[in-house]
Structure formats: C-alpha cells, structure tokens
Amino acid sequence: MEKKLLKVTEELDILLKFKTIKTKLLFYFSTIVTAILVSFSIAFYYYFNKTITESIKTTLFNTAYEIEEKIESKQPINLEKYNLNIAIFKNNKLIAKNSDINFHINTPFFIKDYGEYLDAGIMLKFKIPFEGEIIVIKKHIDDKSEDIVDTMLVLEPILLFLLIFLASKTIDKILIPIKNITKISKEISINNFQNTIPQNEEYELKELIDSFNKMIQRLQSEVESLDRFNTNISHELKTPITIIKGEIAIALKKLRSPKYYQTTLISISQETDNIQKITDNLLLLTKYTKSNIDETFENCDLDSILLEVIEKYKTILKEKNINIEFKKFQNIKYRCNSQLIYHLFSNLIDNGIKYSPSNSTIHISLYKNKNIYFIIQDEGIGIDKNEIPKITEEFYQVNKSKKGFGLGLSIVKYAVELHNGKLKITSSHKGTIITITL
Fold it and tell me: Would you state the pLDDT for residue 136?
C-alpha cells in the first residue's frame, strides 16, 4: 500500500511540474530535439569514421599495388620516399623494408584505435609474376573522429539551450491570444456578458474564440431566460396566491356553513389550477433554447398532432357550435420538438375558439409547398392594428374580459423562432388570420 501511495505521489509530482502548456511544450520539444541531435551525432560519427577508415585503407592498398607494379617491371624501389612502414617478403623471406618494426601480421587489413591516434595496416599476397607479400603500415594517424566528438559535446548542449530559448520566446508569442481569452473570461460573470474576445487570424485560435463567444451568447440567453422566468412567475403568481390567502383568511374568521366551505375550496382549487397552468407555461418558455432545442428534435407527423389537438377541443367546439373547416390538409412529416408543436397548435386553436362567436367557422390549412404552412382563420371581431405588435408579448391581453393568462401567443412565437420559422398575423373586423411558415 505504501509503495502504491508513493508511486501515485511521484506521478502527481511529475504532473505538477508540467502543469502549464508552455512547460509541456518545452519539455516535449527539448526531448525531441535532444533525440534528433543524439541520433544525428551517432550517425555522423559512424559515417565519418567509416569514411576515414576507407580513405586510409585505399591509401595503403594503392601503395602496395604501386610497389608490386614496380617489382613486376623491375624498376628500382625507394621505400624511404613513402611516409609509411613497408616490408616486402618473397617466399616467406624478408627482402626489403624501411623500418625496424615487426611486420608479422596475419590479416588483410587491420586498424587499431588508441584514442587520440590510430594504427592501420594491410598485408597483400601476390602470386604471378611476383610471388610474395607486401605489408604496408601507417602509424600514429591523427584520429579526426575524436576531435569531432569533442566538438559535438561542446556545441550540441549550446545549440540545444539556444533552441529551447527560441522555442520559449515563440511559445510566449503564440500564447498571447490564449492569455487574452483568460483575461476576458475572468471578467465575465452572471451580471456581465458584454465582453467578447476579438477574433484572431490563426485558424485554430479563431475556431476556439468563435466557440467561446458562442458559449457566452448561450450563457447570456440562458441567464436572460431564467431572469425572465423569475420575474414573470413572481409577478403572475401574486394574484392567485393573494386570492387563496384571502379566501382562507375569511373562512377562518368564524364558523361557516358547509356550503360556504365548499364554495371556498372550489375557488382555492381553481386558483391552484391557475398557478399550475401559469407555471407550466412559463417553464415551457424557459425549458428550450437555441442551444438545446436540436437535441429534442424527432420525426413527427404534423397532421396527426393537429388532429389530436382538435380532438381535445371537441367538447368546447360543440358547446359553441363552432365548425372546423380544412381548406387544405396534407400528411406532412417534419423533424421538430413535438411538445412545442403541440402547444403551438393548441394555443392557436384555443384562441380561435375563444375569440370566435357561436355558430361560426374556423378555417385551417396545413400543407407543404417548398416550406410548410399552417394557417388558421377565425370569424371573430379581429384585432386593432396597433395591438398586433403587442399580442405576442408575455402576459399581454387584448380583451381582458376573456379568461386567460396572456401566454398563448408568446409560446407560439417562441416555438416558431426555435424552429427557425416565421409568424405572421393579419386582422380585420371580419376576423384574424395567423400564418406559420416552417
């Protein structure tokens, strides 16, 4: 257990050391650069050493063949002119040399590394016409590869630190927009959504900034929606709560007849229903926003939803002897939020019934022609032109005598906007036409 705890602690320490993006980038950069420099140094050393060895080997072989050619052509040979140790054997007998070094070697080529210098030698055997052996040795060759290693050991750390320094400065420059995002984000609060981040030319940062600004807009929309809900619910619940409290206070002042209590409870029940309806409608106005509405969309049959709504009002339609006439009716499939569409149809039909006189007709059309159209027309008294811009405001009522809360058309407007549609209201003394385009 202690070992595991120690391991976790060590891992946390490592994470804390590299907790900033800059530190991580510099760590990864220095690791990669170090690996590249080391790999390059090893490869360079290997090929440079190989080149020197091949050069020495070529010089020794050329010297041996030159001497052998002179022996074949019976030319005089001056071994002293060669800055090499040379020995010539014929029939295993030494016939010439220019050094007192023991020349007995048994390999065609050898090289010995003594650190700062090298010894290299060859032994070539010839058969025709010269039958013998020529040994050529070069001693105390300056080992250039060791100088290269020493140079690299000095220059590479300097180069590495220089590259890390330049990388650090470059990262600081790259991170400036991110620091600006951090600064602005600290200024944003539930009471301050005014600041947005200026756009940047870099694609990745542009995308990040765009996403951040959209997030600010979504948060602002959500907060405004919540504020609106709080304001509306506190305003609209005052009346029913006041009525309930008044009814209870009067009932408790003295003993009443059972009928009085029954009447009081009916009144309280009605006001409780009103509270429920107001709360449900306000929640519907705040439940969905542009940022989350797409997640609730599903394939729906608009005609089926409309028929379901009309069926709900069947009894009221019969009581007022109002007829529903379909001018144009099609089967339409549409990807939408079924709950909002249901309330949209319901509120428009409810208004149509409420403001239509008895023994009248409500005309409805539902069809598709590039766009989807839902049109409802009643035969009521109509709406004054000055009132039309206001009727979609929350809690606004044209006719105060009609029972309602003034939220129906607000829900309709909101539902249409969330589905990227259009709402058009036209009215005259012969009735009102409401056109929804989706």
Answer: 86
Cβ neighbours of 313 (radius 10 Å): 18
| CA separation for the pair 109, 236 (Å, rounded) | 105
Which DSSP string corresponds to 116-173?
SEEEEEEEEEE-SSS-EEEEEEEEEEE-HHHHHHHHHHHHHHHHHHHHHHHHHHHHHH
Tens digits of residue pLDDT in 58-82:
888 888 888 888 888 888 888 888 8
CATH 3.30.565.10 maps onto the chain at 293-437
CA distances from 14 to 1, 31, 33 (A): 20, 15, 21
Beta strand 323-329 pairing with 361-369: parallel
C-alpha to C-alpha distance for 237 and 405, rounded to whole angstroms? 11
* Region of residue 188 (left: phi > 0; alpha: psi -120 to 50; beta: else): beta
The CA distance from 102 to 77, in Å, is 21
Return left, alpha or beta for 85; rule: phi > 0 is left, psi -120 to 50 is alpha, else beta: beta
- CB neighbours of 79 closer than 8 A, spacing ≥ 6? 67, 86, 96, 97, 98
Q: How confident is the model at residue 391 (pLDDT cuts 50, 70, 90)?
A: low
- Can you list the positions of beta strands (E) in 12-106? 85-90, 93-97
- Give the CATH number of domain 293-437: 3.30.565.10
C-alpha torsion angle, residues 201, 207, 211, 212 (rounded to 10): -40
**Letter string b/e over residues 194-223, b meaning 16 or more CB atoms within 10 A of that residue's CB:** eeebeebeeeebeebbeebbeebeeeeeee
pLDDT at position 220: 73
The burial of 1, by beta-carbon neighbours within 10 Å (0-12 exposed, 13-18 middle, 19 or more buried), is given as exposed
The residues pairing with 300 across neighbouring beta strands, listed in sequence order, are: 334
The boundaries of every CATH 1.10.287.130 domain in the chain are 203-287
pTM (2 d.p.): 0.48
* Residue 331 C-alpha from the chain's centroid: 40
Residue type, 45: Y
Domain 203-287 indexed as CATH 1.10.10.10: no
CA distance 284 to 276: 12
- Residue 136: CB atoms within 10 A of its CB come to 25
In whole angstroms, how far apart are CA 204 and each of 167, 177, 183, 195? 19, 11, 19, 21
From CA 64, how far away is CA 134, in angstroms rounded? Answer: 6
Alpha-carbon gap, residue 433 to 430, rounded angstroms = 10
Tokens at residue 93, please? 């007998």
